[in-house]
Amino acid sequence: MRLEAITWDRLVDLLAERLLDLDTADGAPWPRVALDGAPAARPGDLAGRIAEALRVRGRPSLVVGTEGFLRPASVRLEYGHQDLESYYSGWYDTGALWREVLDPLGPGGSGRVLPDLWDPVTDRATRSPYVELPPGGVLLLHGPLLLHHWFPFDLTVHVLLSPGALHRRTPEAEHWTLPAFERYERETDPAGTADVLVRADDPRHPAWRG
Description:
By secondary structure, the protein is an alpha/beta fold. About 30% of the residues lie in helices and about 20% in strands. It is built from eight helices and eleven strands. It starts with a strand and ends with a strand.
């Protein structure tokens, strides 16, 4: 795997410039971008930086995190607090992501997106207002395990950590989730299938292929 050393600032600028000219695969007027990575890889931070880079270039965007679309605890934790199969396949409400985020930004969509649905702390609906993303606006959806759901992304970015870095940077209370990411690597190969790969073992010195 050949990767090139890069700074975060340069990486963000290159990605933002790429998104300015990104065509959608299905003709929708809203490019949909995945920022995929384990929580320890902090793909949301990259999504936020790209959004800011797009803003100064005059392009609207919307950052949406899958943590705002967790299923209620009664469903998510039905088989226990550390059930790997549930974490891998059932923690996130993919139906709601389709209905509230992706379908409205598809062909013939309204552009009216719900930025989050469920608060995992209170285990209640967030009641957030809908957001209107104008045509040409970019969706930046970030979260873990995104690339095995068949979502209609127009560009996919995977933020990769080596097994050692993932172990070190994941809080000990969440180490039980690590086998899910091993399975994700085996079954989905995000490093091989993503359009852009960012390696962030050393958060000060990323490398990339894109």
